[in-house]
Amino acid sequence: MRALSGYALPLLCALPLGAAAEGARLELACSVTATCAADGTCAQADAESGATLRFVVEPEALDPQGRGDYSVWVDDGAAQAASGLSRTGPFLWSPEEGQLMTLALTGETTALLIRQTVGGTTDTDFLTCEVTF
């Protein structure tokens, strides 16, 4: 097998995340920078004691565009069945009856976690993340 030429590697690195991540496990190590309520009030996270979250997203059954079934782990919790619209999200899952979680990557190092309860509250966490495949 021939080695990649000097210009091929940068071209591979420039592929969209979905193309580079086909079948790949997505891991995010995030810190919460702010949390906003449904009424628009927001609280900035304390940099020293701010919450951290770790997500692992693993594809299970996908169509060619990356839509389909995923497993999501939050911190050290159990795997949750999730649906995704692409290999980079958004991902939706229900950890408990009446609760809906949505994780959406918004940039190379940013994401949103939307936490909803049926007939209850909606909170949105703004996250800064280290993302690896």
Q: Mind explaining what this structure looks like?
A:
This protein is mostly beta strands. The chain has one domain (17-132). Helices cover 8% and strands 50% of the residues. The chain is built from 2 helices and 9 strands; from the N terminus they run ααβββββββββ. It has helices at 8-13, 17-20, and strands at residues 26-37, 42-44, 52-62, 68-74, 80-84, 91-93, 99-105, 110-117, 122-132. The chain has an 8-stranded antiparallel beta barrel. Strand 3 (52-62) and strand 4 (68-74) form a beta hairpin. The longest helix has 6 residues, at 8-13. It is globular and about 40 Å long.
Tally of helical runs:
2
Q: Oligomeric status of the shown chains?
A: single chain
Count up the domains.
Answer: 1
Low-confidence stretches: 1-22
Task: Write down the overall mean pLDDT.
Answer: 83
Secondary structure: number of strands: 9
Radius of gyration: 17 Å
Succession of helices and strands: HHEEEEEEEEE
The percent of residues in helical segments reads under 10%
How do the strands of the widest beta sheet line up side by side? Answer: 1-3-4-5-6-7-8-9
Separation, N- and C-terminal Cα atoms: 25 Å
**Computed structural class:** mainly beta
Strand content: over 45%
The global form is: globular
Sheet having the most strands: 8 strands, antiparallel, barrel
Brief rundown of the structure:
By secondary structure, this protein is mainly beta. It contains two helices and nine strands, in the order H-H-E-E-E-E-E-E-E-E-E.
List the helices and strands and how they pair.
Elements (H helix, E strand, L loop, with lengths): L7 H6 L3 H4 L5 E12 L4 E3 L7 E11 L5 E7 L5 E5 L6 E3 L5 E7 L4 E8 L4 E11 L1
Antiparallel strand pairs: 1-2, 1-3, 1-9, 3-4, 4-5, 5-6, 6-7, 7-8, 8-9
